[in-house]
Amino acid sequence: MVIIKTKQQIEKMHEAGKMLASVHRALREEIKPGVSTLYLDQFVEDFLVQRGAYPEQKGYEGFPYSICASVNDEVCHGFPSKRILENGDIITVDMVVRIGDWLADSAWSYEVGEVSKEASDLLKVTKECLYKGIEQAKIGNRLGDIGHAIQSYAEGKGYSVVREFIGHGIGQDMHEDPQVLHYGKPGRGLRLEEGMVFTIEPMINIGDYPIKIDENGWTVRTKDGSLSAQYEHTLAITKDGPLILTDQGDD
């Protein structure tokens, strides 16, 4: 069942979203060669707690960290570790922020130092896929319109779309209905209504879309070892179009 949010509830989620966006802006200065992903995890936790927010992922179904830190061929749910980021890496940092009873969710991919054109192009197209999906998030459209816009754009550029991990409703719980696929056919699926709040979070691979999961039971990698990137926003459906709750201001 999709939980429709009131304007007041969306405003509360927007506060969490603004906090999350501020973390991502701060991370731009922290992500560089020589830094460990464990350092980034602690940076985010400290940043949030000092401002009265909470990293909702920590402890979720046993997940032990405040962020997911997915490097290079890691698609999502990467464990922060003592691993040192190197020049040319790419990293996706994904987090869920709680303020009071309300949540926001956003992932962002970053270049570490100077990266290859191949990696830079992947990040560019993946971000474009996110916004192609958001353009379709308006009253009267269907979820399939979002998935089709993302899939057709990504595949048209020669990339593949991960199938197993999708967007989702969010509110007071991290995962609610609806499920938001990043592939599909236009005109299919649930019709969008004012007050729906969900994430769009395409994971795009340079190679093929099959994935594998590490022994830790969480970290997802491309099966063929190719690079993967992800961008994610939480957004609300309004009569004026999609309202991006995690907008960084200069996306």
Task: Describe the protein in words.
- The chain is an alpha+beta fold and 251 residues long.
- The chain has four helices and 15 strands.
- The longest helix has 24 residues, at 7-30.
- It is globular.
- The model has no long low-confidence stretch (mean pLDDT 97).
Distance between the termini: 32 Å
How much beta, percentage-wise? Answer: 25-35%
Number of helices: 4
The low-confidence parts are: none
Strand count: 15
Brief write-up:
This protein is α+β, with helices and mostly antiparallel strands and 251 residues long. It is built from four helices and 15 strands.
Protein topology:
Blueprint: H1 7-30, H2 37-49, E1 54-55, E2 68-71, E3 74-76, E4 90-99, E5 102-111, H3 117-135, H4 143-156, E6 160-161, E7 167-169, E8 176-180, E9 197-200, E10 203-205, E11 211-213, E12 220-222, E13 228-230, E14 233-238, E15 241-244
Antiparallel strand pairs: 1-4, 2-4, 3-12, 4-5, 6-10, 7-8, 9-14, 10-13, 11-12, 14-15
